[in-house]
Amino acid sequence: MCEPALIATDPSYMSLGQNAEAHVYKAGSLCAAFLANIDNQSDKTVTFNGKAYKLPAWSVSILPDCKNVVLNTAQINSQVASTQMRNLGFSTQASDGSSVEAELASSTWSYAVEPVGITKENAMTKPGLMEQINTTADASDFLWYSTSIIVAGDEPYLNGSQSNLLVNSLGHVLQVFVNGKFAGSSKGSATSSLISLTTPVTLVPGKNKIDLLSATVGLTNYGAFFDLVGAGITGPVKLTGPKGTLDLSSADWTYQIGLRGEDLHLYNPSEASPEWVSDNSYPTNNPLTWYKSKFTTPAGDDPVAIDFTGMGKGEAWVNGQSIGRYWPTNIAPQSGCVNSCNYRGPYSASKCQKKCGQPSQILYHVPRSFLQPGSNDIVLFEQFGGDPSKISFTTKQTESVCAHVSEDHPDQIDSWISPQQKLQRSGPALRLECPKEGQVISSIKFASFGTPSGTCGSYSHGECSSSQALAVAQEACVGVSSCSVPVSAKNFGDPCRGVTKSLVVEAACS
């Protein structure tokens, strides 16, 4: 039977001292309260309705009956896991159907070259530079901008056969090709998508073709006027030399939405295409290249990911389904990271940053629902250039499950039912549960009651530690799929009177 909802539109406010307050909601005989400590440095003990409550710094306690705390935001009683990514190499299918483990041989990948510039009949030509989002209508990440010039050899923007090409763009990624050859690239930053690229180019007498490929990497969908932000090449686009400049911004530009490979559905191997080439070798580190191969499903039921180390930027498909854009060469800023993270204080986008100077992401999840028994297809579109033989499959394996609960933690939230139903409150308890059905806790790797420190996988005893902790945890947990251990000196003895103690347990499941 459901309990009646508490509906109160006008909560009452009550000061509980400096930087501490209560917000109380009442409706008839029902009452609920939120006690807040907005000091981000100091814990506080406050009095509410004649009863003392401990409030850790920068936290809120929830009292659904205005008496009993069922949750404090700084004392969440939850299990964590210590995991590792196990590298499986790349299990591919050889031509005879047998499974081939470890790194890919050069014969295991087919490839297709994405042509530079305009290849579609529905391309359009207009004077000036068009904004990308409105032009593509989000049909593709990619928009080609193409124009051409005639060079006599004595132009003021030339220094011999050399010139500098300046391109300004709203982002997010820009690649420049001159006469079909790659000439340079640039990308926006974490703080601004704007691009200003100046790259040297070589021009030849006669007709010269300039192709610019603009790519978006996700679009903003929140904030004021986000629909006016725009993307793509806005100009100016100029050729500059020692004696003059040629502004191409108002020239006739031909536009192509998307890639030829997208129109041919190269990402879907079930649709045969003559574009694919199967040779004894395949090109690596070339921009605008499609790759295709087969692999066998990793055994077991652990979560699967692909490590894209060795690739540049692109998108990946497994059995025709996209697992997203990859970009392991996108390096995080060198500064702004912290050695330790504290939840206290106002949130900011730079709070608790880590992995400065490292790739923003190298592992990309492959849902097991995408996989099929035996052989699977993988297709990559590589935009910058990479070597697909270097990618590998990994599985995420849980090594330990851990929990850390103190004597000051609230009781388990399910021990409170309602003011009308009486239930013996047992105090805080540490709970562990194996992550997979059929597993049981096989061993206790670490247990400490007192003042332990550390994180899951690297706990250590403090100066105060009960000698009974390991035996109590083993008795309660080994051989079962889940267990609950009361956090109390009655259970472990009191190794240090007058000190708030914690229980830490790390367990292995099998």
TrEMBL record:
Catalysed reaction equations from the record: Hydrolysis of terminal non-reducing beta-D-galactose residues in beta-D-galactosides
Keyword Signal in record: yes
EC number(s) reported in the record: 3.2.1.23
Pfam families, sorted: BetaGal_gal-bd, GHD, SUEL_Lectin
A GO molecular-function descriptor: carbohydrate binding
Highest taxon, organism lineage: Eukaryota
Gene Ontology BP annotations: carbohydrate metabolic process
Compartment(s): Secreted, Extracellular space, Apoplast
This protein's name: beta-galactosidase
